[in-house]
Amino acid sequence: MAFEAITTQEQFDEKVLERVGRAKDSVRKEFEGWISPEDQEKKTSGLNRQITDLNGTINKLNEKIKNHDKEIADRDSKIKAYETGSVKIRVAREKGLPYEAVEFITGDDEDSIGKSADALMGLFKDVGGEPPAPNPEGSGGKEKDDNESYKEALKKLRGGKE
After folding, report:
1. 1-14, pLDDT tens digit by residue?
2. pTM (two decimals)
3. Could you give the CA distance from residue 66 to residue 46 in angstroms, rounded to a whole number?
4. CA separation for the pair 30, 46 (Å, rounded)
5. Are the CB atoms for 117 and 90 separated by under 8 Å?
6. 72-84: burial string, b at 16+ Cβ within 10 Å, e else
7. Sign of the dihedral defined by the CA atoms of residues 8, 10, 13, 14, in that order
8. Closest by alpha carbon to 83, among 107, 50, 58, 54?
9. Per-residue confidence band for 143, with pLDDT thresholds at 50, 70 and 90
10. What does the alpha-carbon distance between residue 125 and residue 103 come to, in Å, rounded to a whole number?
11. Per the count of CB atoms within 10 A, which of 45, 80, 94, 104 is most buried?
């Protein structure tokens, strides 16, 4: 390749165009496989829209999960209350307590319910027996004064202590 002098404008324009073409080709090869900024913007906005939609879906599903968890907890507490009530009724029946006494039995497990029923049975064993004898010298034919009857019943409940 020998050096040729450029003497005319046409030769100069031809050489410059040739050089610019080679530079364009080299840049095109360098950025081959890249996307344009406009295409990138379209792709980014589409992905951002997808992210927003999926986040909304996630939030809805999380809310549903919270509601389901709350319902499950409510149902579990109801089931536990029913089971505890059933155990209280069974223990009261085994101990010979009246059905009305079940509401006074406390506890969450069978052992504590049994202890509570035993304590309640202790109150019932001292009450009862013979009714008090009538007092011929009393208040107009009443067996005893009302306050006196209450005092005796309380004394029996306390186990004979005043």
Report:
1. 677 888 899 999 99
2. 0.46
3. 30
4. 27
5. no
6. eeeeeeeeeeeeb
7. negative
8. 107
9. low
10. 18
11. 104
Main-chain dihedrals φ then ψ at residue 159, nearest 5 degrees: 85, 30
d(CA 124, CA 114): 15
| Structure-block tokens of residue 29 | 């090869």
**Of 100, 150, 90, 160, nearest in space to 125 by CA:** 160
Please give the angle made by the CA atoms of 85, 91 and 94, to the nearest 5 degrees: 145
Q: Which amino acid is present at 116?
A: S
Q: Cα(140)–Cα(150) distance, rounded to whole angstroms? A: 18
Residue with tokens 């069974």: 90
Question: Which residues have a Cβ under 8 Å from the Cβ of 153 and sit 6 or more positions away?
Answer: 127
DSSP characters over 85-137: HHHHHHHHHHHT--GGGGGG---SSHHHHHHHHHHHHHHHHHS-SSPPPP-TT
Measuring CA to CA, how many Å separate 156 from each of 69, 120, 160, 161? Answer: 51, 14, 5, 8
Of 72, 102, 97, 98, which is closest to residue 86 (Cα–Cα)?
Answer: 102
Alpha-carbon span 92 to 86, nearest angstrom: 10
